[in-house]
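Write out a record, focusing on structure:
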Amino acid sequence: MNICLKIFITTLLVANSYSVLSNTSENAKQFGSLPDVSDVLISPNGKYVGVKQKTEETIIVKIIDLEKAQLFSVHDFGRKGQITDFFWATDERLVFTVARDYGRTTELYNAGQLVAADIDGKRTKLIAGYGSASDTRQGKMNRAKTDPDRPAVIVHRLPSDKDNILVSFFDNAGYNELSQLNIKTGKVKYITRSPVVYPNWIFDSEGNLMGVGSSSRENAQEIFLYKPNLPAGSLDSRECSSKSNCYIPPIREDNKTPGWVFFKDYEFGKGGMSIEGFNSNGKMLVTEYMDSDKSGLYEYDLRSNSYELLFRDPKVDITAVRSSREGPYKIRLDNGKPEYLFLSDSNKQKDLAIKAINAFPDRKVALTSASSDRTRGVVRVSSDVNPGIYYLIDEEKNQISPLGRYWSKTSYSNLAPMQVINFKNRHGDDIQSYFTKAVGKDNAPTIVMPHGGPWARDYWGFHPEVQFLAAEGFNVIQNNIRGSTGYGLKHTDHVRGNFAEVLTDMFDSIEFLDSQGMVNKDQVCVYGGSYGGYAATQGPMMRPDLFKCAISEAGLYDINAQYSSGDIRRNRGGKKFLEDSFGDGKKAEDMSPINYVYKLKTPFMIIHGKKDIRTPYKEAEAFMKAMDKNGIKYEKMIIEKETHGFSKAENRIEKMKRISSFLNKYLDV
């Protein structure tokens, strides 16, 4: 039996026999199910892969011996918790993040517990989190810096260290501590304390601490650098060799946390910086705007305080920069479809990525992991009509072999392609959208599907709800309207204080596609979640002539209520974020659907989870009461334990069936 087939069998990654355009119940089961294989990682020696797989009862990790093509071991912690993440610490030992189901919601609760185990499942030990130390008093307040009995999160694997990893221990005040954690004994070695609350730690490829980023109380991005680990002479010069590329930030020492220096801050909407890594010359590579509308990749010299632009696209921001132990090597852009650019530095992991991308053109290709010598790696390949397949790349054998499917319950045939659409809105701004045509049907009705955020965007690729609607006989439009990320600062920032006004882009997309003969504007409904739920509610109030029906899931109905409920206000800088986003109270009132319920003339369906803390259920309840008061009929689907979007498969499946039934009442399918 060959390796491909045997791994398919041992990891239970075989596909089902469903086909699209069956009945609604079967389509809902396909696209409402959850992916069962969410990660495949190769061991440092390249001899094994770990497969994180969802079963009916829990989440497990299977270890597959690649040479023997057989199952080696299974890691299942049963009642001790479900595995949410894992990685290879060494060839012989793995580290897992485990979470628990306390029954309060449909989501797992991450209590910050880390478990280490040998590859064969032996010497399993809780190395961090509550219960990991001999003294497990839950109420203990002043814990020692070497006490592992605290919630922790893994922040770096330390590839050159066989015994330790880096973790961030949570602090009650938010000033988390960075520590070295022994994966065999659980022994803790304190390194430093963050100068900012809820930090995003920044490291070089070997795990040397370089900096930290966070949000200030004023909703600004703050970046501090850890001077002990910077190249000699860094930040000492206060002059630049050339004024044209001078970059002197307002550096100051942080007295409360020795070793840290304040480096840079950015006001909300004024750009930001992402430190991507360090190149072979010791210079810092950052994604930044530098007074431009689009982000670019810069090389910043910490010694001379000068920078050099390496790359900027004229139309879109940089989506991501990928790094390996040898430094950053790949840039991803998303101007419609994903595009990959490679840096010129020598990098063995880059060679693996190039091999995979050349083998799978016009696909999303993500390298999940690579062996230490970079001769083997695992990639996940996906597209609009491919939910995802994992492949093993073997450089020495010059082979690429399939390992298994990401989503075994979903059909990989007869899926609907996603087409990139570009048009200009009524103001002359460029808008990029995606159009998915109904499967096997011309002149189909259309669903406009606004994304959440609004500071987010839609991407080209497999989307289960889009595919469900296409299988049910509906076209789907997804718009990256003004306010969406990825198209420059001006495009993104326009939504501030204009939550409703930018919805004209959604209206313009319908008019444009109608003029192209791609949709019939007299047969359109709208369905969205979160901000998309807001758009699905506010849009029909603004243009009741344009929509036959509307569905709002986890929608935002009362903007001013966000100041007194919801989780955003509790975040660091959350109140200022709300002020920056919505403007003054009067503007927030004017943008809130609850104040204009009487304008809702479109058949309406509301979907909400009672445990939603982002857009709390009580706001949805208030909106339903307002509809009742105004004599507006509506359908509803309220689930007791769901949160912001449904996470339980049974509820997702039922939701899809209810959505299809509702749409069929008002559209000619």
